[in-house]
């Protein structure tokens, strides 16, 4: 089965629409969203409706949870705080109800899906370095674990039950075929706000039978998103970073 796995849309509707068109062209059969539908951008309700309509599974992200006032945003930077305050004013009841229904993690066949880290999904740990990635291996039992949260696509793979016992394989793609005994942690990157110096939307194509993983990059109308954000007086830092991919 061909899976389309994506994360961190952050209310960027042109990027999400482009990713769904890309998935259609690649004949994706099952779509999994790893969360953070809202935050930063100015189309939270439209993005939530599109994800609900076109995804088979969707998880809760930390920005989604803050948008529901379930936790404080004290650890957000000033730009994320400004965007969240805008989101609170514009989030529809339908979107709130949808976000409230989302789980923190899901297991399916050989896959574990979680927004941040399998170690403690509701605590939003960042898997931002190799030590964090190796530690995460101890917290999922499936062959593959797919995460988002850092907005940077990468694959960490190991043949060992204890990942600290061997040097892991680190791949930034775009294409990786897992070995017959490899276990892998995959960060699928970001649809709406990539931070790997590549401003194109990113999603992950996975063949569950052929054991290959591909990071798919998609051009979208960045200027359209930026103009929408300017009209809503979003911080210029958030507007400009979309063009820089950081």
Please give the share of residues in helix: 25-40%
- The radius of gyration is 17 Å
The percent range for strand residues is 15-25%
Largest sheet, in brief, is: 6 strands, mixed
Report the structural category. alpha/beta
Strand order of the largest sheet: 3-2-1-11-12-9
- Please work out how many helical segments DSSP would assign: 8
DSSP, total strands: 12
Mean pLDDT: 95
Low-pLDDT ranges: none
Features:
single chain, 246 residues, alpha/beta, six-stranded mixed beta sheet, 12 strands
Brief write-up:
The protein is an alpha/beta fold and 246 residues long.
Describe the structure.
With 246 residues, the protein is α/β, with parallel strands linked by helices. Helix content is 31%, strand content 22%. The strands form two sheets. Strands 3-2-1-11-12-9 form a six-stranded mixed beta sheet. Strand 5, helix 6 (130-136) and strand 6 (144-147) form a beta-alpha-beta unit. It is globular and about 50 Å long. The model has no long low-confidence stretch (mean pLDDT 95).
